[in-house]
Amino acid sequence: MPNTKPDAKIFSITQSKYLAEKIAAAYGVSLGKVITSTYSDGEFQPSYEESIRGTRIFIIGSTNPGPENLMEMLLMIDAAKRASARHITAVLPYFGWARQDRKDKPRVPIAAKLVAKMLEAAGATRIITMDLHADQIQGFFEKPVDHLFASTVFLPYLKSLNLDNLTIASPDMGGSKRAYAYSKALESDVVICYKQRAKANVISHMELIGDVTGKNVVLVDDMVDTAGTLTKAADVMMERGALSVRAICTHPILSGNAYERIENSKLVELIVTDSIPLKQESKKIRVISCANLFADVMQNVHYNRSISSNFLM
């Protein structure tokens, strides 16, 4: 039976326009027009330049810091609500502020919960995101959350490498579930890195749980920030007899000296998605687009079809 439902409309915050254009093309529609006016003090105001009354709209935007990305998403959701959009789906390829998902010491915020509440208060009726830092962040929302896994796009690439003696590794204890899911799909062994931090982004000690001798190792993680953990893990594994070390990280935050660390590291390559734009090019960084994944899920959501086939882990 042909779909008779009117097409949804897709819009984007400024930073994520590069990805939104690819998603819209894969979806089969043109990216909606938004004009953002900026005052001299930095305040900005997005404006939809077409009618969205009674329609389903998707607003695409990763909310990685700085705060203007989250603020622009909130303003666009609010504007859509006041323009009488029927359904407002916030598509967050990268859900920023997610590392603050609990109180790990007294007198600190739970920023991930706060962001969830702000998105709902602004008027979002549904959330689509990918590889949350912690799965339980879904529970911070009262609205439906579709949590996609980048393994959908990474696994075909890994299989195409045809690596012998493949071993999947997690750079920390918290990522062990993700590592086991990849290992199950690839029928490989698993090793875990145990790390202790002196402070945020600074590793004081790292140990390896498992054997990597003669193995081609693939580290998997949800994000790469300063790349300190990944490069340290690669050094440890090569010292323990690994043949090669690659890394798969969904969200390429890559702050500080990350690019320099990766270039000078023992990593063969770092494989990421385009959820966040790269700040610079690197011969060691391979980008695999997540646009088709999001476009497929968005179409299925719009036409009320199942999206379970998009969950490989």
TrEMBL record:
<dbReference type="GO" id="GO:0004749">
    <property type="term" value="F:ribose phosphate diphosphokinase activity"/>
</dbReference>
<dbReference type="GO" id="GO:0005737">
    <property type="term" value="C:cytoplasm"/>
</dbReference>
<dbReference type="GO" id="GO:0005524">
    <property type="term" value="F:ATP binding"/>
</dbReference>
<keyword id="KW-0963">Cytoplasm</keyword>
<dbReference type="Pfam" id="PF14572">
    <property type="entry name" value="Pribosyl_synth"/>
</dbReference>
<dbReference type="Pfam" id="PF13793">
    <property type="entry name" value="Pribosyltran_N"/>
</dbReference>
<dbReference type="GO" id="GO:0016301">
    <property type="term" value="F:kinase activity"/>
</dbReference>
<keyword id="KW-0547">Nucleotide-binding</keyword>
<dbReference type="GO" id="GO:0002189">
    <property type="term" value="C:ribose phosphate diphosphokinase complex"/>
</dbReference>
<dbReference type="InterPro" id="IPR000842">
    <property type="entry name" value="PRib_PP_synth_CS"/>
</dbReference>
<keyword id="KW-0418">Kinase</keyword>
<keyword id="KW-0808">Transferase</keyword>
<keyword id="KW-0067">ATP-binding</keyword>
<dbReference type="InterPro" id="IPR005946">
    <property type="entry name" value="Rib-P_diPkinase"/>
</dbReference>
<dbReference type="GO" id="GO:0009156">
    <property type="term" value="P:ribonucleoside monophosphate biosynthetic process"/>
</dbReference>
<dbReference type="InterPro" id="IPR000836">
    <property type="entry name" value="PRTase_dom"/>
</dbReference>
<dbReference type="InterPro" id="IPR029099">
    <property type="entry name" value="Pribosyltran_N"/>
</dbReference>
<protein>
    <recommendedName>
        <fullName>ribose-phosphate diphosphokinase</fullName>
        <ecNumber>2.7.6.1</ecNumber>
    </recommendedName>
</protein>
<keyword id="KW-0479">Metal-binding</keyword>
<keyword id="KW-0460">Magnesium</keyword>
<dbReference type="GO" id="GO:0000287">
    <property type="term" value="F:magnesium ion binding"/>
</dbReference>
<dbReference type="GO" id="GO:0006015">
    <property type="term" value="P:5-phosphoribose 1-diphosphate biosynthetic process"/>
</dbReference>
<feature type="domain" description="Ribose-phosphate pyrophosphokinase N-terminal">
    <location>
        <begin position="9"/>
        <end position="123"/>
    </location>
</feature>
<keyword id="KW-0545">Nucleotide biosynthesis</keyword>
<dbReference type="GO" id="GO:0006164">
    <property type="term" value="P:purine nucleotide biosynthetic process"/>
</dbReference>
<dbReference type="InterPro" id="IPR029057">
    <property type="entry name" value="PRTase-like"/>
</dbReference>
